[in-house]
Amino acid sequence: MSSQSTLADDDLFGEAAAEMREEVEAHLEDAEAALPDPDDVWDADADNVLGVLNALKSTLDVGDAAEHLRQAKKTFIVGQRAEAFDDPESLEARLESVEALLGSIEEAGDLVGDLTGTIPQLRSQLQDAADAADDDSPTDADAAEADAES
Q1: pLDDT tens for residues 82-130?
Q2: d(Cα 144, Cα 132) in Å, to the nearest integer?
Q3: pTM given for the model
Q4: Where would a tag sit more exposed on the chain, N or C end, judged by fewer CB atoms within 10 A?
């Protein structure tokens, strides 16, 4: 192989490496852009707790963010194995950060999902207990009769 051919190959490899880094960064930016808005996670506009939980569960759906992260990781792995990146540690740290954040969001979504199923059951149980207590409590007539007997 001539030195001119080797130089051209090195140039092509350098271009490919730059394109791979740009692709990883673009997918990471898309993943970060698809994350829930912090205000949407915090603010709630609902009439009751179940409405708040349902809204929060919808907000915590990471949808496209997970797919963009997946694409970024695939490209990163290929580039890393080809030793195409000058500074793979910075990309890897960013990938890990976004992945950890997505994991936290998904975990919170699971917890909210659990509460969404539990809260209506709890309310029903509390209502049944309150109804039973009302049935067992003396009425005004029973109280007047008890006072008359004393």
Answers
A1: 888 889 999 999 999 999 999 999 999 999 999 999 999 999 999 999 9
A2: 22
A3: 0.76
A4: C
Report how far residue 23's alpha carbon sits from residue 9's, in angstroms, rounded to the nearest whole number. 21
Say if residues 84 and 69 touch (Cβ distance below 8 Å): no
Task: For residue 2, give both structure tokens.
Answer: 């001539």
End-to-end C-alpha distance for the chain, whole angstroms = 115
Q: Tell me which residue has tokens 């791979």.
A: 20
Extents of the domains making up the chain: 3-134
Any idea what DSSP says for residue 7? H
Which pLDDT score is estimated for 69? 97
Mean pLDDT of 48-52: 93
Question: What value, to the nearest 5°, has the Cα angle with vertex 133 and ends 132 and 135?
Answer: 65
**Token representation of residue 13:** 């490899």
Judge whether 34 and 62 are in contact, CB under 8 Å. yes
